[in-house]
Amino acid sequence: MKTVGWTIACLAIFGSACFAQDIAGDWQGALQAGPRQLRLLVHVDNGVDGGWKGWLATLDQGDPGARIPADSITLEGGDVKIGVAQIRGRYEGKLSADGSTMSGTWTQGVPLRMELKRATPETAYKHDSKHSVQFVTVDKDVKLEVLDWGGTGRPMVFVPGLGNTAHVFDTFAQKLTPKYHVYGVTRRGFGASSAPASGYEADRLGDDVLAVLDALKIEKPVLAGHSLGGEELSSIGSRHPERVGGMIYLDAAYVYAFYDPSHADAQSLQLEVPDLLKKIAQLQPGNGPADLRPLIKELLESTLPAFERDLREQVKMIDLTPPAMLAAQSAGLVPLPLNAIMSGMQKYNKIPVPILAIYAVPHDLGPQANPDPAKKAAREAIELETIGAQAKAFETAAPTARVVRIAHANHYIFRSNEADVVREIDAFVGGLK
């Protein structure tokens, strides 16, 4: 009995020892999501106190540079657990004795089997985008990832939407290099760029782009922004119109890029909530003017009615949004940079530069679209009204702007309607001085 007990103890010791190894590095695997495979990359680094840290990237959803931070990575014995709270995902697997694979389950709503293999120079996923990468210092201890796809002709600088990196343009940029020298900037807080605790106000983000232009000696470029990238464009165009030759808004000329208070829009709440809170705070004793009557009059006659109007518009959109999309929108935690950017939005209403604004209206929601024809039609009707009003206001305020509307295009309009967007860009840039 003593011999058997000693044998079991030895097996336990050696079994633990065989798993006490370094899991730092890149791990890659694939999930079978319906008819297609989604490749995942998990990067693990050595953390503090002997722990681990890392991030997750999806390589088949359009932005290989977007990194979702892992909140926890543990290795106990041979059991590996990785938690990604931002998307409410987790991986639980078993490390092989030779440390080359992890076999387990990825769970994000439903569990899916996935094997992660340690990447080697020979097996690492390859990306066919032809770009160089450099890091440009734009602020104290802040460096931004800048991609250069090369090309000849006028410089064109792309700014991605919220949550994306410049890599989201990897495929599209290569369609433009025959005529333009194309760059992309990953804003602070995302991808490989620095993620400081502050500096996410709209004009600061615009200044970051200007710092990149200065560092690379890019003069009078055409700036192109997708989605929230329109915020940086409007910040630069409204304050420093002499720095750019033109600007292209790719489904990006919404309230964060051009604010028009005259029509109802659920997105306006992003800008109106901070203003409302500031005005309400002034009602507290000692926080506002001695005579509160003008402030109260403004709240009653203007601020609160507009706020109520936009709240009702948001409720309409929520009622008509597919449940799967609502679940996806609320599935994870909002990380610091996103919160800070949403809080740091500003109102722009004068942008005196040549402009091309391309809207997707109504949007194609893809596989998440509501199967109910009546609800789908109602949602499209609201978009035609609200986005149509936004586009019209933009045209009115910037009469020299070319505003294009593409029906049933995806929000990533440079993918869903690539040929249309390239054609409009060529016509716009060809008409610039």
Topology:
Elements: H1 2-19, E1 25-33, E2 36-46, E3 52-58, E4 68-69, E5 72-76, E6 79-84, E7 89-95, E8 101-108, E9 110-118, E10 132-139, E11 142-150, E12 154-159, H2 170-173, E13 180-185, H3 202-216, E14 222-226, H4 229-239, E15 246-250, H5 269-281, H6 293-320, H7 323-329, H8 336-343, E16 355-360, H9 373-397, E17 402-406, H10 413-416, H11 418-430
Parallel strand pairs: 12-13, 12-14, 14-15, 15-16, 16-17
Antiparallel strand pairs: 1-2, 1-9, 2-3, 3-4, 5-6, 6-7, 7-8, 8-9, 10-11, 11-13
Helix pairs in contact: 3-4, 5-6
Write a short abstract of this structure:
34% of the residues lie in helices and 26% in strands. The protein has helices at 2-19, 170-173, 202-216, 229-239, 269-281, 293-320, 323-329, 336-343, 373-397, 413-416, 418-430, and strands spanning 25-33, 36-46, 52-58, 68-69, 72-76, 79-84, 89-95, 101-108, 110-118, 132-139, 142-150, 154-159, 180-185, 222-226, 246-250, 355-360, 402-406.
List keywords for this structure.
single chain; 433 residues; alpha/beta; Lipocalin; Rossmann fold; 2 domains; nine-stranded antiparallel sheet; eight-stranded mixed sheet; 11 helices; 17 strands; 34% helix; globular; disordered N terminus
